[in-house]
Recover the amino acids of this structure.
C-alpha cells in the first residue's frame, strides 16, 4: 500500500499569511494527488485534483504543485474561512489519505 | 444539482453487520464510480473501497478485505456499503463520494455508525 505523509501535522497562522502544506508519497504516484479541506462536522471538500488543477468554485488563493513523490498545497493569503483541516489523497493505487494538517488561528 | 444522500445513524452490537445506503441524484448514477471513506471521531480520513455502478466492479482497501461489501441498485441510483463483524474500532462516520477525474468531487453528508455492547 502507498503511504502518504503530511507535514506539519498542525500549523498556526494569521489571516493574510502565506501557508504551505507538504505531502510525501512512499512511492511515485505521478500526479495522482488530491487535496481536501474539512471543517468540523462537515464532509471533506475537494480543493485540488491531479496535483495542480483547481476544482470549480474554489478560490484562486489555493494552489497545488508537485509530481512523483513530493507535493505541496499553498494558500497565498489566508482568509478566516480557511482555518480547517487539510488532507492529501493519492489516487494512483486505491485511495489512501495523509494523516491531515490542522490549520489554526495564531 | 449533484447530491448524495446517505441513510441515518446506526447503533450496532459487536459482531453484527451494518449496511449504509447512498442515494445519488442530479447526474447519471452509472457514469461515475462511488468511493467509501470513514472517519473515527477526532481522527483522519480512511479510504475503504470503490465501486463502478455500471459494471458492479469493486475494489477494497486491504485492511477491510473480507469484511466490506459495496453493492448498488441502479434502478434507484443507490450504492450500499456493508461492513460485517463489527468491533468498537469501527465506530466512525462513513461517507460515500462520487469519484471523477481521479478525485471525490461530491460527498454524502455522512452516516454515524456506533458499535457498542
Amino acid at each position: 500500500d502507498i503511504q502518504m505523509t503530511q507535514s506539519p501535522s498542525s500549523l498556526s497562522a494569521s489571516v493574510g499569511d502565506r501557508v504551505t502544506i507538504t505531502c510525501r508519497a512512499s512511492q511515485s504516484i505521478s500526479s495522482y494527488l488530491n487535496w481536501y479541506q474539512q471543517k468540523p462536522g462537515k464532509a471533506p471538500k475537494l480543493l485540488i485534483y491531479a496535483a495542480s488543477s483547481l476544482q470549480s468554485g474554489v478560490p484562486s488563493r489555493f494552489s497545488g504543485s508537485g509530481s512523483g513523490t513530493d507535493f505541496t498545497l499553498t494558500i497565498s493569503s489566508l482568509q478566516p474561512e480557511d482555518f480547517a483541516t487539510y488532507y492529501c489523497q493519492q489516487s494512483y493505487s486505491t485511495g489512501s489519505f495523509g494523516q491531515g494538517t490542522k490549520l489554526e488561528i495564531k | 444539482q449533484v447530491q448524495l444522500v446517505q441513510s441515518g445513524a446506526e447503533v450496532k452490537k459487536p459482531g453484527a453487520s451494518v449496511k449504509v445506503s447512498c442515494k445519488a441524484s442530479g447526474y447519471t448514477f452509472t457514469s461515475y464510480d462511488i468511493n467509501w471513506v470513514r472517519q473515527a471521531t477526532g481522527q483522519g480520513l480512511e479510504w475503504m473501497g470503490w465501486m463502478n455502478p455500471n459494471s458492479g466492479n469493486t475494489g477494497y482497501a486491504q485492511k477491510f478485505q473480507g469484511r466490506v461489501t459495496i453493492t448498488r441498485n441502479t434502478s434507484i441510483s443507490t450504492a450500499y456499503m456493508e461492513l460485517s463483524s463489527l468491533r468498537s474500532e469501527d465506530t466512525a462516520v462513513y461517507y460515500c463520494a462520487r469519484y471523477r477525474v481521479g478525485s471525490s468531487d461530491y460527498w454524502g453528508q455522512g452516516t454515524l455508525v456506533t458499535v457498542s455492547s
About this structure: The mean pLDDT of chain B is 97. Chain B touches chain A through 21 residues (CB under 8 Å). The two ends of chain B are 40 Å apart (CA to CA).
